[in-house]
Structures are given as C-alpha cells and as structure tokens.
Amino acid sequence: RSWTRHTMMTAYFLAGFAIFFEVAVSFHHQPSLSIPLRNLSSTTSQCNRKVPTFLHHHNPNVSIEYCTGCRWGLRSAWLQQELLTTFNEEMGSVTLRPSKPPSPGGTFVVTLQNSLDGNDSNTGTVLWDRKAEGRFPESKELKQRVRNGIAPSKDLGHSDGNDTAPVDASNAAGDDRCEECDEAKLSKETDNIPKANVDSVPDSGAILNKNDVDITYCTGCKWMMRSAWISMELLSTFEEELNSVTLTPSRPPEEGGKFIVSIGDKVLWDRKENGRFPEAKELKQMIRDEIAPSKSLGHSDVSEDTEESDDDEMDDDDAVEMRAFYGVL
User: How much is the pTM?
Assistant: First the structure.
C-alpha cells in the first residue's frame, strides 16, 4: 500500500512539472508586450510633467459666492472640488466667497474670470445665478459652462451629456428669504461686519485684501483634498471675518511639493520652510491674530503645552478609573 502511495505521488509530481515546463516554454516564445506601468516613485516626482506655461497663474479663476445664512458652504465646497478635479490642468484657482449681511440673502452666484479671453475687466462673466436660473446648478452643467469659457475643446466624458430633467423655475428656487437670512430677522448691527467684495473677482495681478486667504497646493502631490478641508475649517471658524478663501493649484514649471497658506500678501505657512503641514488650530490662531485679535477660538486656543500639563495633573480617582479601564492592577 505504501509503495502504491509513493508511485502516485511521484506521478503527480512529474505531471505538474511537465505542465509548468510547457507553460514556461510557451510564455518564453510570446512576443513582448508593451504595458504602461504606473509611476510608483515619490509623489513629488509626478510634478515634472509638461503643461502650458500660463497655467500657473491665478487665472482662469472661478468664484463661488454663497449665502452663509442659508448654510450653502458645503455645497459650494463640493462644487469647488468638482471643478478643481475636472479641470486639473486648466484651472488657475477657485475661490469661495461667503455672502454676509448687509448683502441680500439667498445668494448663490458662480463667476468666471478668464484672462485668456482678452477681457481685462475685473467683473468677470456670471456662469450661474441661482435667483436668475431658479435653482442650483448640476455639477455637469457648471462644468460645461466652465469648459466653454476656458477649454472649449476639452472632453468632459459623461458630463457632456444633456439628460438633466427640466425644472420648473417658479418652484425650484423656493423662498429666497429663508429663515436664517431674512433681512427682517437680521436687524442686528452689521456695520462692523466685513463685507465681501461681490462686485468683482480679482485678476492674476490683483493685490488681495488682508481678509482674503489663499492656499497654494501641489497638484502632483495630490494635496487638493487637504487644502479643501483646511479652507472649510477656516470659513467655518471665520464666517464673519473672512472675505474669501482661494485654492490655487501649483503645477510645473513651478517647483513640486508646494503648500503655502497666505492671507493678503503675508505668508502664514510654507510647508518647505516649516518642515511639515500646519495643524488646523495653528492656522486659525495665526489668522485670528491677523484679522480678529479679540476673537475666542474655544478649544483651538489651547496650546499643546497646556494639554500636556492637564494630562500630568491626573488625580488619584482618575488614575484608578484609568487603570480599571485598561485592565491594569
């Protein structure tokens, strides 16, 4: 019986070796295939691809002005990221502009400033006005209008389709005077609230106001989402103080690995100089010191030294509770 088992195992081994040899020989005689492989080098090395030289200017710029009382900041940030992703090689910058009292409520306006069209004015072209259109734009609608303004030959794939259902403009907009931005309910003092400049969009050579924040990020390093998160943190914390936050992609021939946060003409954070990315509370403290020194930031005002000292002052009851929680005698 053991001899039979040994014979069968030998036969299985020889059969497997024969199959392996046949496959190896057939693969050796196959013609070589040219398969494009993804570049697995460091992310900053992706920044060396060639693009037109005009793309590293702030223009073309898309400005999204939204009503803070209606809580449309997240909708605006989503559209901002959609545009920056779709027009990764063409877009110069995308700006979020909170609209605050005494500006009228219910504002949602998308404006394009394109230095390539020969128009040197700062007013730009209105791509979408919620009050005029009667509704918010679908992302693909906005992409089509931006494409027509900055890159007419660009293929948008499925976003080029026109399957948007017709909308009744009389009912789509709803009541422009929502509860939060009803002028009758906003009778509080608004004279000291900084008002965003809604009449114009700055061109590539304009000097930003001290209440305008710009976040320049490297597209090759894929830092757009990080920049968008920081912009929303700032706009949420300084809803009444900031005029705008702009995301500006940095591409070749500019140096890779760029991440710079500035307010007005002052650089607050440079990743290469500081050696790391900023914490959200660090940026908030810097911006607060620049535009609203008396503003309280809550827990974002707590320094790391204070947090560490709080941990060191654990009393006996807390220590017993922690030991019981972690199963330490």
Answer: 0.66
Q: Can you give the pLDDT at residue 312?
A: 57
| Contact of 151 with 116, CB cutoff 8 Å | no
The residue ranking higher by pLDDT, 127 or 162, is 127
Q: Which of 212, 221, 227 is nearest to 262 (CA)?
A: 212
Q: Which two tokens stand for residue 40?
A: 């697995």
The answer to whether domain 53-153+172-291 has CATH 3.40.30.10 is yes
- Residue whose C-alpha is closest to residue 93's, from 201, 222, 236: 201
DSSP string, 186-210: --S--TTSPPP--S----TTPPPPT
Distance CA 145, CA 301 (A): 43
Full DSSP string of 208-260: PPTTEEEEEEETTTT-HHHHHHHHHHHHHHTTTT-SEEEEEEE-TTSPSS-EE
**Distance between CA 327 and CA 321 in Å, rounded?**
10
Q: How far apart are CA 83 and CA 283, in angstroms?
A: 25
Q: How does 288-300 read in b/e, with b if 16+ C-beta sit within 10 Å?
A: bebbbeeeeeeeb
Query: Over the stretch 90-123, which tens digit does the pLDDT of each residue have?
Result: 999 999 999 988 888 999 999 999 755 444 455 6
CA distances from 76 to 150, 186, 245 (A): 20, 23, 12
Tokens of 5: 């088992």
| pLDDT tens digits for range 205-244 | 344 577 999 999 999 999 999 999 999 999 999 999 999 9
Residue 89 and residue 224: Cα distance in Å, rounded?
13
Q: β-strands 125-129, 244-250: how paired?
A: unpaired
Report whether 297 contacts 288 (CB < 8 A).
yes
